[in-house]
Design goal:
The protein has a single domain (about 1-110), classed as Helix Hairpins. It has four helices and no strands. It has helices at about 1-20, 25-40, 45-75, 80-110. Helix 2 packs antiparallel against helix 3 and helix 3 (about 45-75) runs antiparallel to helix 4. The radius of gyration is 16 Å and the shape is globular. The chain starts with a helix and ends with a helix.
Length: about 110
């Protein structure tokens, strides 16, 4: 049981790292609050909630992987290397694509 509790603590520490170190994560947090607030205000259906929650989750998962890759890359290759730069750019692109998809989903649901 202690091991499971410790695992959750590590996971919540990871969320804190993302929120503290990634300025875009604060934008994602604001977008999450707005999306949930609009859903509550407009009384969206269960299927619409499913789409919104999956979209929100997709962005946060992408941001988590992006942050992990950036931190690991900075540790392994502290000096600039073109391949590390391309890896970081690709991870950032994944977050951008997830965010764009989420905006499209939100527009479909809320408009």
């Amino acid at each position: 049981m202690k091991g499971r509790i410790r695992s959750f603590r590590y996971a919540f520490n990871g969320v804190a790292v993302i929120l503290r170190t990634q300025p875009n994560a604060r934008i994602h947090l604001l977008a999450t609050v707005v999306a949930v607030g609009l859903g509550l205000l407009l009384g969206i259906s269960g299927g619409e909630w499913l789409a919104i929650i999956l979209a929100i989750g997709l962005v946060w998962v992408a941001e988590g992987f992006n942050t992990a890759l950036e931190l690991l890359a900075d540790r392994v290759a502290p000096d600039f290397h073109p391949l590390v730069g391309r890896a970081k750019d690709s991870a950032a692109a994944a977050v951008l694509l997830a965010a764009i998809a989420s905006v499209v989903i939100a527009l479909i649901v809320y408009i």
